[in-house]
Amino acid sequence: DIQMTQSPSTLSASVGDRVTITCRASQSISTWLAWYQQKPGKAPKLLIYKASSLESGVPSRFSGSGSGTEFTLTISSLQPDDFATYYCQQYYSYSWTFGQGTKVEIK
Amino acid sequence: QVHLVESGGGVVQPGRSLRLSCAASGFTFSNYVMHWVRQAPGKGLEWVAVISDDGSNQYYADPVKGRFTISRDNSKNTLYLQMNSLRAEDMALYYCARSNPPKSYGSGKYWGQGTLVTVSS
Q: Is A29 helix (H, G, I), strand (E, B) or coil?
């Protein structure tokens, strides 16, 4: 099974900060990686698919990069609406595997 | 507009069964691979199972293999999850999610709002 490791688990940042979250796969997954945002009491929302493709309607301050086993999600200028938990997800195989999540908190 | 609406959650005793449903609308259901994903209270997302667009292939996470069965009725635009021999660790909010693009095991573009399963004696 493919394991996904996200870091950090928690991130404290201020509005306007540049934020980077890292995700590492236990084996190469090419670019079959997605990033989701989840707010309390809500379903996950797809932000990025195929490692770097921005989902329709998602602000351009969100970007993704990487391939193989190393991936990053970057928020170029953190906005108040961005305080949430972020998950990476591999879909290289039939199954999905999620990272453990990164909670972005207000500093 | 795509809608996924889960139902069937509730309180169940350990060892008992429950069947979840996910009613889909706003797209051609039979063209899409569908997943169940769960989230225990205060925890992260855990993939549970997937079924191909035509229902011929199913795959399961190890913790539920042999106890849960994913199925679909394309004539009713509905996805199911039959959960048997429920355990305390199965207690979670269960989401259905649609893969994208059509006929592929892609990322989860659309999710329902979830249905809560509580396992307690």
A: coil
Distance (Å) from the C-alpha of residue B24 to the closest C-alpha of chain A? 16
Helix or strand (DSSP H, E) at A67: strand A62-67
Predicted confidence (pLDDT) per residue in B14-70, tens digit = 999 999 999 999 999 999 999 999 999 999 999 999 999 999 999 999 999 999 999
A interface test, pick of B107, B111, B113 with most A CB neighbours within 10 Å: B107
Residue that the structure tokens 């573009």 belong to: B109
Q: Which long-range contacts (CB under 8 A, 24 or more apart) does A6-10 make?
A: A6/A87, A6/A88, A6/A99, A6/A100, A6/A101, A6/A102, A7/A102, A8/A102, A9/A100, A9/A101, A9/A102, A9/A103, A10/A102, A10/A103, A10/A105
CA–CA distance from A93 to each of A27, B18, B104, B105 (Å)?
A: 11, 28, 11, 8
Contact of A62 with chain B, judged by CB distance below 8 Å, is answered with no
Q: Rounded to an integer, what distance in angstroms lies between the CA atom of residue A16 and that of residue B82?
A: 46
Span A66-90, pLDDT tens digits: 999 999 999 999 999 999 999 999 9
Which residues in B have their CB inside 8 Å of a CB on A? 35, 37, 44-47, 50, 57, 59, 61-62, 95, 99-100, 105-109, 111-114
Say yes or no: A1 contacts chain B, CB-CB below 8 A.
yes
CB-CB under 8 Å, A98 with B47: yes
- Do A34 and B111 lie within an 8 Å CB cutoff? no
